[in-house]
Amino acid sequence: MTKIRIGRRAALAGGVAALANPAVVRAQGSGGTANPIKLATLTPLTGAGGPYGPVMAKAAASVVEEVNKAGGVLGRRIVLVSEDDQTNPEAAVRAARKLIDVDKVSAIMGTWASSVTTAVAPLCWESKTFLCTVSGADSITLLPHQGFLIRTQPNSRLQVTRVGEFILSLGAKKAFTMIPQTPFTQSTFDTLNQVLPKGGCTHQSLIYDDKKTTYRTEVDQALRTSPDVILANGYTPDTVVLLKDLYRAGFKGKILGFAYSINQKLVDQVGQPEVVEGVYTFAPSPAEGSGAYEKVKAATGSANPDPYTCQVYDHASLVLMAMASAKAATGEAIKENIRKATVSGGKVVDNAVDGIKEIMAGGKVDYAGASGPCDFDEKGDILDCKFRYDQIKAGKFTLVKIA
Amino acid sequence: MIILQALVNGIVSGTLLAVPAIGFTAMFAVLRFPNFSVSGVATLGAFAGYLAYGAGLQMAGSLAIAFAVAGVAGLAFDKVAHLPLIKQGALPAAIASIATGLILENVVRLGFGNEPRGYDRPIARDVFLGEIRVSPQQLETMGLALLLMLLVFAALAFTRIGKAMRASADNPELAALKGIRPERIATLASFVGMGLVGVGGMLLGLDSSIDPLTGTRILLSLFAAAVLGGLGSVPGAVLGAFLIGMAEELSVLVVGSQYRAAIGFIAILAVLTLRPRGLLGERAY
Predict the structure, then answer these.
(1) Chain B residues whose C-beta sits inside 8 Å of any chain A C-beta
(2) Inside any domain, residue A189
(3) What's chain A's Rg over C-alpha atoms?
C-alpha cells in the first residue's frame, strides 16, 4: 500500500516536472537570462604572469560583450567568470575547481604558465570542460586530454622550424647552433637537422654550460667550422657573454636569437652597439594588421597588444562559434566543433559576431584570428602562426618582417 | 693549435679563479671550516664594485670598494653566524655558511633584481699572438689578478701580520704562546679572505656580466681548486685554480661544455681518494 502511494506521488512529481520543463526552455529561448552560458578566463592576474593576465581577461570580456550585444549564442546570454591563477599551479587548481564545480563553466580560457596548464588540464578533461591555453611547453598537448584542449601558442618545434627557414632565407650554407642544456635542446637540433639540409645548409651544434663566465673555447669550437650563421639560443645572461666573446673573436657572420633572450635589456647591458649590430631576433607574433588584431587594440586600448592577449581574444571567439556550430553549449560540444570555426573555404570572418551569424545562417566560416589562422592539429597544437623578425641597428630593434 | 688555444683560455680563467680561491683557502687555514658563503660574498663584491665603477671610480678604486664591502660583510657573518658554531665542529659552521651565502644572494636579488648587469667597459677585438687569440681586456684583468696574488704572497712572507697569520694557521696554540692573539688573526683572515673573494667576484664579472647567481656559478670550481691544491695552502689554491681552469676549457674539446661541472667533482673525488692532503699538502705556503 505504502509503495503504491509513493509511486503515485513520484509519478505526479514527474508529470509536473515534465510539464514545467518546456516552459523553462521557452523562458530561456525568449529572454536568455534565466540560464546563461558560462565561460571562464583563468589568467595570471598576479605572480610572474601578472603583467599579462588582466589584459587577457579584458580581451575575452570584449568578445563576450560584443556577442551579448548581438543577441548572444543560441538565444542565450553569455556570462564570463574571471579567476586569478596567481601564476601558481596550486592556486590555479583551486580556482579551476570553483569554476568547474560551482560556476559550471563550459570552457576555461587563457591559462598562461605551462605548470598551471599542466595542473588544470586533468580537471578539465575529467569534467568535460574545454580548455584553451597560451602555454608553450611541448608536453602539454601530449597529455591525454581526449581533445578537450587547444593551444594557440606555437610549440617549440614549430618555432624552430620557422627559425630554420629564416636561416635559409639569409642564404646560409653553414649554420651553427650554440645552446645551453634545456628541455628543448634536443628537439631544436632534430628540427634544424631536418629543415636546414633541405635548403642546402649544413648544421652543426654545441651545448654549452650556461653557468660559465666565458665561452672563448666554445666560440673557438664554433668558428673552426667557419659558419656563416650562428644561432645563439640561450637565455639573456649567457647570451650576453656569448655575444661579447663572438665579437672579440672577430666573427663576421650573421647571428640570430630568440627575442625573449636578445632583448633591449641585453642590448643595454652589453653597452656597446657594435657588439650586437646586425643581430637578428625572432618571436611568435600576433597577426598585426588583421581585422581581429585591430579589434583587440580597440578593446584593450593598447597600440601593441601582446601575443597572449590576442590569443585569448581568439579563444573566446572560437569557443562561441563552436557553440553556434554545435547548437549546444557544453564542453563536449565545443570539443567536437572548435575546428569548424576555421574551415578552409568558409567565409572569412575576423570576429565572433559575424561568425555566429554566418553559422546560424547555415554557412561555413574561416576565422582569421588576432593571433593567426587558428588551425589546429589533432593534438590541439596550432599548425601555423605569424613570426616577427627584427634586426638590431645602432642599438635599436628594427622590424624586418612579420611572416 | 686548438688545444694550445684552450690551454691559454684556461690559464686566463684559472687566474681569475685563483683570487677567490686564495681567499677561501686562507680562511680555511685559520678558521678551520670551509666557508661556503663565498658564493654570496663574491656576488656582493661584484655588485659593490659595479656600483662604485658606475659612480665614476677608476678600476683600482672599484676593486678596493669590492674588497672592503665583501670583507666587512663576510666578517660580520663570520662573527654572528659561523664562528659561534665552530665549537660544535666544522660541519655546523659550514652548513651555516651555506645559509648565509643564500641570504646574501637574496639580499642582492632584493636590491638589484634578477636581471644581469654589465660593467660599462669597452669591448675590444682580440689580438693574435701567432695563431693564439688573446683578449686585451682579459689580459688586463689577468694582470690585476696576478698583482693581487703577488701582494698576498708578499704580505704573508714579509709582513709581521702575515707571518703571525701563517704561524696561527700552522699551530694556533704555539702561536698563542708566542703572544699572537688568535681572535685578531681570525678577524683578519675573515676580512682579507672575504675581501679577496669579493674582488674575485668583480674580476669575473668584468668581462661577462653579474647577477645574483654570479658567485654560485663559481662556487664548485673555486672549492675544487682549493681542495685540489690542498685546503689551507695558498700556493696550492693558485695551482689548483690554474689546473681546474685548464681542465674545464680542455673538457670542452673532449666531452663538451655541458659536462664542465663534472670536472670540479672529478677533481674533488680524485684528490680525496688518492691524495686527501691535496697536491701541495695542507699547510704548505
Answers:
(1) 2, 5-6, 9-10, 12-13, 16, 115-118, 120-126, 133, 135, 138, 204-205, 207-209, 211, 213, 217-218, 248-249, 252-253, 256-261
(2) yes
(3) 25
Q: Are A220 and B120 an interchain contact pair (Cβ–Cβ within 8 Å)?
A: no
A183 and A149 in a common domain: no
The tens digit of pLDDT for each residue in A354-366 reads 999 999 999 999 9
The tally of domains found in chain A comes to 2
- pLDDT averaged over every residue in chain A: 89
Distance CA B147, CA B163 (A): 20
Q: Evaluate if residue A184 carries a pLDDT over 80.
A: no
Between chains, do B207 and A214 touch, taking CB under 8 Å as contact?
A: yes
Question: Are A43 and A170 part of one and the same domain?
Answer: no
CATH code for the domain in which residue A328 is found: 3.40.50.2300
Domain match, A346 and A396 both: no
At A9, is the pLDDT very low, low, confident or very high (cuts 50, 70, 90)? low
- ipTM confidence score: 0.82
B116 vs A207, A224, A237: nearest CB = A237
Task: Give the pLDDT of residue A18.
Answer: 43
Residues A59 and A107 in one domain: yes
Binary contact (B261, A209; C-beta < 8 A): yes
Do both A116 and A167 map to the same domain? no
The pTM for the full model equals 0.74
In a domain, A48, yes or no: yes
Structural domains of chain B, ranges and CATH numbers in brackets: 2-274 (1.10.3470)
Whether pLDDT at B259 is above 60: yes
Q: A53, A112 in Cβ contact below 8 A?
A: yes
Strands (E), A249-383: 254-258, 280-285, 347-349, 365-367
| Residue A204: burial class (beta carbons within 10 Å; 0-12, 13-18, 19+) | middle
* Facing B208 at nearest CB: one of A214, A218, A250: A214
Angle of the B234-254 helix axis to the B260-274 helix axis, nearest 10: 130
Selecting from B125, B217, B252 the residue whose C-beta is nearest the C-beta of A217 gives B252
Write out pLDDT tens, residues B168-219. 888 888 888 888 888 888 899 999 999 999 999 999 888 778 888 899 989 9
B154 CB-near residues (< 8 Å, 6+ apart): none
Range of the domain at A250: 157-286+386-402
Residues on chain B touching A267 (C-beta within 8 angstroms): none
What pLDDT does A7 receive?
54
Do the domain assignments include residue A313?
yes
